[in-house]
Amino acid sequence: MAKYDLKTVAVIGLGYVGLPLAVRAKEKGYEVIGFDIDEEKIKLLKKGQNLFKKDTFLKENLLKYPFKATNNASDIAQADIHIICVPTPVDHLHHPDLGPVIGASETVATHCKKGALIVLESTVNPYVSEEVVRPIFEKHGFVVGKNIFISHCPERINPGDPKWDVTNIPRVVGSFDKKGLEMSLQFYRSIIDAEIRPMRSIREAEATKILENSFRNINIAFVNEIAMSFDALGIDVKDVIDGAATKPFAFMKHYPSCGVGGHCIPVDPHYLVERAKESGFNHGFLKYAMETNEGMPAYTVERLQDALNEKRIAMKDTVVGVLGLSYKANIDDLRESPSFKIIEHLKEHKCKVETFDPHVKRQSTMKSLEAILKKSQALILATDHKEFKDALTPALLKKYDIKAIIDGKNCLDKELFSKEKSFIYRGIGR
Length: 430
Ligand SMILES: NC(=O)c1ccc[n+]([C@@H]2O[C@H](COP(=O)([O-])OP(=O)(O)OC[C@H]3O[C@@H](n4cnc5c(N)ncnc54)[C@H](O)[C@@H]3O)[C@@H](O)[C@H]2O)c1
Hints:
Layout: E1 8-12, H1 18-27, E2 31-35, H2 39-46, H3 56-61, E3 68-70, E4 81-84, H4 99-111, E5 116-120, H5 128-139, E6 148-152, E7 171-175, H6 178-191, E8 196-198, H7 202-233, H8 237-244, H9 268-278, H10 285-294, H11 296-310, E9 319-323, H12 338-348, E10 352-356, H13 369-375, E11 378-381, H14 386-391, H15 394-399, E12 404-407, H16 414-419, E13 424-426
Parallel strand pairs: 1-2, 1-4, 2-3, 4-5, 5-6, 7-8, 9-10, 9-11, 11-12, 12-13
Antiparallel strand pairs: 6-7
Helix pairs in contact: 4-5, 7-9, 7-10, 11-12
Bound molecules: nicotinamide-adenine-dinucleotide.
Nicotinamide-adenine-dinucleotide binds next to helix 4.
């Protein structure tokens, strides 16, 4: 494989994905320019502030490997590689919003030099590189495979994961041509200590990421359905899953919960569903899976309603404390968090809602766990933060006269909590 002269990297979009990547490239000896349209973010980065405090890699390395952070797009002009890490959300109708990818591609195409490598890391459906990104560069006079090279290397980062981070997660990469692929392989192999697998086409690289996240969405939907069935049957789904997991092959543990959140799992399958429809294929299974997961916050509220009914308490005017706003444990990421859906459903039932999240205090209505327990008659545990798991005990709930608790993450000791008769404990599928 030829060796390419790649020294300067521009990272476009400094979020959960772009920021660790910029720091890692700098650590590995590249000149790094980080560009973002968010002026506030750039100001904070210039002051050396870590925007993602739960990211262990950033905690250890952000200040050690400072890179040039800028709002000025002309600063990226000399980069040999441009890596686009901008959001790929869906709108309120679940239609893909490629606005940020288009905006970032326009910025790069306007400023990049001839011969540069452009890598899209944002999660996209198959054909986005061909139908959206490539034409932007062609419109700016570039010839793909001759004086500009375009690849797709989907990011798989799992924010807050102490084991897997930007340094060691294997990647796949696809490109329009051999040179683009070789340049990409050289770069990613130089910064990541794991397999970088070349894909036969850029389309296959795009599809790989969508398959991974659709796989997860479907498996979660399946256990959510099983959980609802087992609630009706009086079977503990968690015990059953742990039992099934003793089979050493052909079973993979997924657990049910009060909902699926984050920027990826509930969002990415919509990209595939929409694009497949344009090509004449109508996904059924995947759509049903997404609907099942989207229904879990409402189901969780129904579980509370049933528990309160048993205690002969009406939902209307009951003060319900929602514990946790972020979509997953021990982080402060609120994107697509089911907590907000749960709050909406509680309000539809005319409950009075209070919230507390130790990681998102500014958006919580209460200042502490004690305060929310004091104010609430019932609880929904929506996020399995360590602070909740450590502090909540049957005695504490009894002390504050809690009448029902729905453990939306099945993270409390069911046996222990069920023994106490002053309140009702319910999980999801247990
Ligand atoms: N967060 C994750 O866990 C994760 C994991 C794997 C893949 N992804 C994918 O990576 C992509 C980025 O996700 P993220 O979580 O880093 O998003 P993010 O919202 O944390 O960060 C994106 C950044 O891009 C900036 N931006 C938006 N438009 C821009 C433009 N035109 N030019 C320059 N900057 C722009 C935003 O200001 C923001 O700082 C998405 O496609 C996402 O699906 C995310």
